[in-house]
Amino acid sequence: MAPTKYIFVLGGVTSSLGKGIISASLAKLIQARGYRVTIQKLDPYINVDPGTLNPYEHGECYVTEDGAETDLDLGHYERFLNDPTTQANNITTGRIYQTVIQKERRGDYLGETVQVIPHITDEIKKSIKVLGKTGDYDFVITEIGGTVGDIESLPYIEAVRQLRWEKEHDSLVIHLTLVPYLAAAGELKTKPTQHSVKSLLELGVQPEILVCRTEHPLNKGLKDKIALFCNVDSSEVIESIDTSTIYNVPILMAKEKLDQVALKKLHVETNLEADLTLWKGFLNRLKHPVDEVNIALVGKYVELKDSYKSINEAFIHGGVMNDSKVNVHMIHSESITEDNAKEKLEHMDGLVVAPGFGKRGIEGKIEAIRFVREQQIPFLGICLGMQCAVIEFARNVLKLKDAHSTEMDDQTKHPVIDLMLDQKKLEDKGGTMRLGKYPCEIKDGSKVFDIYGKKYVKERHRHRYEFNNEYKDQFNNAGMLPVGINTQDNLVEIIELENHPWFVGVQFHPEYKSTVNNPHPLFTGLIKAAKKYKHKVHK
Ligand code: GLN
């Protein structure tokens, strides 16, 4: 079998150039030629994982099947490749150091001084090669977080330098940079790219393909100039122009021949053509919607779109399945009250209440849910969103006035959402929630059964609190039906309302599993119901 090929993607000039999307697009193009490919993200921060980070820091925390709390770029990888990732696909400096320090304490380095080089760099290299060693992949694409020049990226770039030396014919460095447009001069500027490549060269790394983010097309003269200054061929300077949707990027990269150039540099001779039929079909429907719906997304991190990345992408997938544009209206949960819920939500065709932690904004979420429950507007509650639906129903239908989750009020007389026993004993906050994939059995004849079209599903979790089974019969008898049960632990995973056209709460996160090839049925179902509601009520 041919050795695994390693592709490194490093960013320069600024952050937020879209390394994740470029990595995912290249992977898609390679996968579309029939190769097995995975993508990995190395994050230079010292947190062991992003699980304890506020979403304002790096956006949402993405959860894999095996329960790893990871960077949101892994969501892009899965959405593009339709292939699950694992803990091995996201490594942080914290995790690397934790491993090295554990080894040192165990005595693995007895007699040695433990240093950044070689001990930390060895551990980084091991984390990169571990995916290749599984034998499952022809290509491993490793995206290094941060920007060239950051102090904390240095050990990663050094590890890349060593790996390039070790795997001369089986590895490749791609550098993603910015070619800014100076309006006053009316010109695109190549100097930042030149400087960024020089910084990499100082660290011993020669990037072999330059992907240049730009607002305007790069003409031949400009590509030649970048090539001349950066020791690459003009054909190895790839234009990455701004585009209206990330799902267009693989198509743009195919036009620029990024995959062909990369394969050639890796000495992979192939006459396999990239088959992008499915992808293009999706893109075509995305670009030509025939209807549109307005969906409110209520959460408390509204200022930063990335906080709800997977939900926003799942809306796009579900919209495409309904040939509908989904206009997402972010509403801050703290801004909703009993008095203004109508005004804020009456023009909406559907509501999603987002996941979250802590007390802030809870009452606004509950008021929003009350309004859509009473008005029969389609609703999907995700994790904390489901818990809020349970609290709302308990207070306003079951008349348990002070019902709450013990996360918000540990003295409540009616803890309809409560900690499970095994969570009560925990002291560490990091990595100790109910995380990752759990099985769920769906009741025959329920609406959710029709939405999924199957009885057994596996969905990903990230929470501590659960529906309190002591109240199960009361809810069931009053019309909030527990229709999805984790039969292993006897936990309620899905509720639906009997007297409502589309009101679903899920304790898990369906958004993590929605991909271009497999849009999630709950999002597809919600948009379908929203369309129906719109044509009936708003005309
Ligand atoms: N805070 C809630 C819990 O821990 C919900 C978490 C979430 O929405 N992801 O159970």
Binned strand content? 15-25%
Number of strands: 23
**Number of helical stretches of at least 4 residues:** 19
- In helices, the fraction of residues equals 25-40%
Report the structural category.
Answer: alpha/beta
Mean pLDDT: 95
> What is the oligomeric state here?
single chain
Adjacency order of strands in the biggest sheet: 13-12-14-15-23-22-21-18-19
Main beta sheet, described? 9 strands, mixed
Q: From the alpha-carbon coordinates, what is the Rg to the nearest angstrom?
A: 25 Å
First-to-last CA distance: 60 Å
Shape: globular
Tell me what the structure shows.
There is one protein chain. With 539 residues, the protein is an alpha/beta fold. The chain contains 19 helices and 23 strands. The chain has a nine-stranded mixed sheet, with helices on both faces. Strands 5-2-6-1-7-10-11 form a seven-stranded parallel sheet, sandwiched between helices. The longest helix is centred in the N-terminal third of the chain and has 18 residues. It starts with a strand and ends with a helix. The mean pLDDT is 95. The site of glutamine (GLN) has 10 residues, from strand 19. Glutamine binds next to strand 19.
